[in-house]
TrEMBL record:
Protein name per the record: Amidohydrolase family protein
Domain of life (superkingdom): Bacteria
Pfam families linked to this entry: Amidohydro_2
Matches recorded under InterPro entries: ACMSD, Amidohydro-rel, Metal_Hydrolase
Location of the Amidohydrolase-related domain: 142-387
Keyword Ubl conjugation: no
Organism: Algivirga pacifica
Keywords of the record: Lyase
Length: 407
């Protein structure tokens, strides 16, 4: 599909691409936003999603959950019990169930950025719900809860019809009218893939927010030999498309080859006003390395450099929020660095981080480390700017923050 045709079919303002009820809410309220959540279940992902071929069948998942939960019955947060919690979510019959679980931890007015999955190109195995079915399920859920859900469409650029799917996802007369684009590079592509560059050109022009996985590669392509298509800019700024074959042996290989934020350099040089959230802020391993690095060569350093150079580069702390000492380090960085203070987003990565602990405890611990002012900053002020282009200052008296229903 012609890129100009797609541009003409997409409304220009982020506020025009959300339900009218949410627009009305945002005009009068300042709801907290968890910008990075998942509602998918076992029907939405290939049966090699967990890295080994595991039949995505409700009865088998339930049996596995029961076994794991029973091994150490006196400890609710041992690693096997936590894996059982994760399996309990992925074994939900419908995304509505996952959504209700997620809502139970928050105030009743919190908005959720919901990220869909497009894994069938990169990961082996059967998928019960292909792309259209998953999009339709989330669309229906958004229509049922129009003030709560901001959906992101995942599109693998290796799809021959990727641009058509982009049109379906975002066009005003299309079937879905989603709000943002989700990118998961370790499935086997880099951000500068030629088709992805076309999609990102539109995202920049139309202010479509982009969320990209930017941490380790626990979820990765099944193949260890991949042809990687990418783009370079010549001395005149023209895009030159290239490709090369890579051999990958470890999860770190996939992480370095695809998820390293340095791979966004070409994209940001070409589209400097792109609204981009480098999710997880590099991840726990990179934050631990950043704490001791003296040469400033970590992914955290790269992301900070992008924030300083480009006006719309953000990073959420999703999943990474599970580690209290890193939450404290982020709070210190926000205090010392105004740019970081205004470009960090609150995201949880629910329910993926259930593998690290009980969600209520992790949420409360993180909110406690941040404090009310910074929770407002990352969960209201910054997220509203990133998702909706809204810049609002409020008085302390009117300020409210998330947080869980127990806080």
């Amino acid at each position: 599909m012609n890129i100009q045709v797609i541009k003409q079919a997409i409304l220009s303002s982020p506020l025009e691409r959300i339900p009218e009820k949410m627009r009305t809410l945002l005009a009068n309220e300042l709801p907290f936003v968890d910008v990075h959540t998942h509602l998918f279940n076992y029907k939405d992902v290939p049966d090699k999603f967990l890295g080994v071929r595991f039949p995505m069948h409700a009865n088998i998942l339930q049996w596995t959950e029961n076994i794991l939960d029973a091994i150490i019955p006196w400890d609710a947060e041992d690693s096997l019990s936590l894996l059982a919690d994760f399996i309990d979510e992925i074994n939900s019959e419908h995304s509505e169930e996952v959504f209700q679980h997620l809502c139970s931890f928050y105030r009743d007015d919190v908005i959720f950025g919901v990220l869909t999955m497009d894994m069938s190109i990169g990961i082996e195995g059967n998928v019960m719900h292909e792309w259209e079915m998953q999009m339709e399920i989330i669309k229906q859920l958004r229509d049922k809860h129009p003030t709560r859900i901001v959906p992101f469409a995942a599109i693998d650029p290796r799809r021959e019809d990727a641009l058509n799917k982009f049109h379906q996802a975002f066009a005003a007369d299309g079937p879905y009218q989603f709000a943002g684009l989700k990118i998961y590079p370790s499935l086997g592509y880099v951000p500068s893939h030629p088709r992805m560059m076309q999609m990102l050109e539109i995202c920049e022009e139309k202010q479509i927010p982009v969320i990209a996985h930017c941490s380790g590669a626990s979820v990765k392509a099944s193949s260890n030999v991949l042809t990687v298509e990418y783009t370079e800019l010549d001395q005149d700024g023209q895009q030159v498309h290239k490709s090369n074959e890579v051999v990958l042996e470890t999860p770190q290989d996939y992480s370095d080859t695809f998820n390293d934020p340095i791979h966004w350099t070409t994209v940001l040089e070409a589209y400097p006003n792109l609204k981009l959230n480098l999710a997880h802020f590099g991840g726990a391993d990179q934050w631990n390395a950043y704490q001791v690095s003296t040469i400033h060569d970590t992914w955290v350093d790269t992301i900070l450099g992008f924030m300083e150079k480009y006006p719309h580069v953000y990073a959420d702390f999703s999943y990474t929020m599970a580690f209290p000492e890193l939450g404290a380090a982020l709070q210190t960085m926000m205090t010392q660095n105004k740019t970081v203070r205004h470009r960090t987003l609150f995201g949880s990565d629910y329910y993926m981080l259930l593998q690290e602990g009980k969600y209520q405890r992790m949420l409360d611990d993180f909110a406690g480390k941040m404090g009310a002012d910074y929770m407002y900053q990352i969960g209201v002020h910054n997220t509203h700017r990133f998702l909706f282009g809204i810049e609002k200052e409020v008085t302390t008296e009117k300020k409210h923050v998330l947080t869980s229903k127990k806080v």
